[in-house]
Amino acid sequence: MAAIFSSPTCVEVIEAIQDHLPALYFAFSRGRTELLAEELGREWDFLTSGEKRTVRRVIQEAEENNPGLFGPRRQNLRRLLLQGIGYHHAGLSPLLKDLVERLYESRLVYVLFCTETFAVGVNFPAASTVFDACRKWDGQEFRPLLNREFFQMAGRAGRRGYDEVGRVFVRIDERFPEQTGFYREDEVEPVRGRLTISPNTVLSLLHWKTDAEIRRLLEKNLSVYQSNKESRQLRREVQKLEEKAAELARCFCPDRGQDCCELYRVKLRKELNQLKKSKHRNRSDIRQRRQEVQLILQKARKKCRYKICLDASRKIRRLEERVHLLHKRLKQLDKHSRDYVREFENVWSLLEKLGYVQGRELLPRGRFALYVHVQEILVTELVFSGIILESPPLEAAAILAGVDYQPGRDEQVMPPPFSLERVEELRRFLLESGVPEHFCVWSPLPAALAAAWYQGATFDQLLGMTNLQEGDIFSILRREIDLLRQIERAAGEDRALALLARELRRRLDRDEVAVVGV
Amino acid sequence: MAIVKIAKHQRKDGFVTLAQKKETGARGKRRPRRRRSKVVLPAGPLKLDRFQEEAIAALLEGYTVLVAAPTGTGKTLIAEKLLEHILAAGKGAVYTSPIKALSNQKFRDFGQLFGPERVGLITGDLSINERAPLLVMTTEIFRNWCFANPEELEYTSYVIFDEMHYLDDPERGTAWEESIIFAPPHMKILGLSATVPNIQEISSWMAEVRGEVVKVVEERCRAVPLEISWIAPGGDVLDEEEAREEIAERQEIRRWRRQRWNEVTAAGWEELDY
Hints:
The complex is a heterodimer.
Chain A: H1 10-17, E1 23-26, H2 30-43, H3 49-65, H4 75-81, E2 85-88, H5 94-105, E3 111-114, E4 128-131, E5 135-137, E6 142-144, H6 147-154, E7 166-171, H7 199-208, H8 211-220, H9 222-249, H10 262-277, H11 284-298, H12 306-336, H13 340-353, E8 357-358, E9 361-362, H14 364-369, H15 376-384, H16 387-390, H17 393-401, H18 421-432, H19 447-454, H20 459-464, H21 470-491, H22 495-508
Parallel strand pairs in A: 1-3, 1-4, 2-3, 4-7
Antiparallel strand pairs in A: 5-6, 8-9
Chain B: H1 2-25, H2 50-60, E1 64-68, H3 75-88, E2 92-97, H4 100-114, E3 119-123, E4 126-128, E5 134-138, H5 139-148, E6 156-161, H6 173-182, E7 188-193, H7 199-210, E8 214-218, E9 226-231, E10 237-238, H8 240-267
Parallel strand pairs in B: 1-7, 1-8, 2-5, 2-6, 3-5, 6-7
Antiparallel strand pairs in B: 3-4, 9-10
């Protein structure tokens, strides 16, 4: 079986493009970048001995500043870097990412296996880019890359002053040939408006903006502008078509529809034909109707140039069909264009119900949530329910780490040595009170990590508690530090809360998690 | 029977590649061919492209400007020229970027370019030198400022949105949109975006919602043109037409295999004689 379905290797891809290095090799999962790098490393070595010495020196310097840089999990990366091969994804610690980036910029990495994030922002050009696949997981489903995404990555190929063309290679997967992508730069997708109305947006509008300004956001945002523009165009077309139909209808005479009118008689003849074929042709009412029609048809036809009328009526029918389609699209637009005014009012009344605002006036909860920019309702309730201040600081650190965290499929962390039942209870209560799910996203998963880090554990100890990667742990803790800064600001006169937030932050923002030498 | 045949055939192929590997792998790992001299095209001193000059001219006249150009064509240079001008005039500017790593990088770059004392960095979890005339931020922070403390932006004449096509991001786009709508009216905008087909539409929306003239500068050509090829299993490099043929062929083979497989399994496993 293995022989039949043998997956093509990156080795033969690199073999094919070896005259166009350095290459950025885009893959769409972290594991895949590592797997491919390992595979290439078994057969290829890109560095001369002089280059190897340089790489070794750079790595040693980095390690002197940060002992344990590669840790227990990334020894393979060190070995690969010495062969001129690297991988780069969000699971790596920032320091390690930085090292790989520096080596890449010094042209000491010949093939870099990376994920999409490597193509955002900082420009790391290459001689060529390779696409391992043309589909990616977007958080909900596997979908083909958009033209925009493809060219954002592909466009890294071609170094100004070095390469005459930037070479882009798309791998055809033996198992899924139909998933191979074909992209065109002139088909890049248009930008659409994506405004969303969060509780913080509503509070900020009510507190800081005038009615006119609120209306500006709700009625003149990009999404509304775009759908208005399309419906304006459609309406204009409908009008034009209707005018054309009216123009055509002018050739009809006042006798239209009378017994003597040929237009009418054509219709009647059709009806008569159908009546004759009908399986109920012997029923009395049908027979009667047939006689009626036959009588009319026996009468004299008006002598006129009826062909003009027939022609016009056919054209009008076609125009009407088109108008009908346009109306359908307009209805669709109306239904799908988001009613931002209503969304705003819905969130507003939810906030009123929960005691954040009274009319336009912000109540204490509202004034607090005004300075929270992530899961503002949940965070405010965690504070106002007393959970944060009443729990031991250790547990508060653990609870806040889970705010807005959506665990991936097989992420695991050891459970914490204390119960998080109060938070679960609060969430259940909020959901029952009509707070939508996406306004109270929280997970117990990161709790134990934050607690241990708060207590002074080493980063290696954290790694021992979970299958999450260094970069994930780093970003969980950095996000908590971000949140703690918001809470400190939101606390205002509440000294105890502000002090707690600052203390938690001080304890979390250290060693591997601290951002140094920005 | 047919399946067995394919398997054998493939396996034979497999042996061949293994043998090849041995040849090259005998003295260790394979090394790339290195080209003696790299093609070095005349790089020349930094001469501005037409679109760069056009954009900079509009900015110096104080317009809000949208620049849409492919990556690597030198959009950053436009931003740097503008910042140089603003700082020389003793005014302030904000530079926003979509990701923290990029903010950090820009903070470093600008520090080297304009002097560290003139550059500050503000992200959710970090702030350095907040009083500096040139502030690098995440777009979310700038959006918050537009609501909570627009007075802080009194002496800030421009906000630069890097990677402005993030407007289209389902989760984060809203921060760009709220920023554009509520950036204080005295501030002008420089939007840097990848190529998007409806840049004119965005500019007329901005003109309407902000009530100001918006200039669009577009560059469609890449500094270095792209050439897309496909790589078939086995390593052949194909052009588009060949790639489509290859794919059609492979699909045909798969269909045939699946059909054979169904026939064999329908006939019963005992016929499969491994």
